[in-house]
User: Fold this.
Amino acid sequence: MLQVISSFFSKLSNILLVTEIWTNFYKLFIIMIMHKILTPTKYIEFEKLVRITKKIDEKTRLRTVLAYDLGHNVYDIAEILQISESTSLNDLACRTLPIPPKV
Assistant:
């Protein structure tokens, strides 16, 4: 009986290990695909705008986009910037992205 239980848990642990490996691979794949929304030049422009903008709402939008581009998820960004998750999601929507001024 003990041998049957041991065999069962041995197989179960192998299944859990494979599941964990695939889950981590999937998360990494999603991060690689989803997070790069800015070109390198736009990223630099947004960094400059964060420093010179005086409007708090616009700064928050810029910081949200920059953090997302670095690979942070929406929920962590909301927690770090102390904004709601819906605000974080809205800031990432194309219609609310601030348009950098022409230099």
Q: What stands out?
A: The first helix runs from residue 2 to 34. The two ends are 76 Å apart (CA to CA).
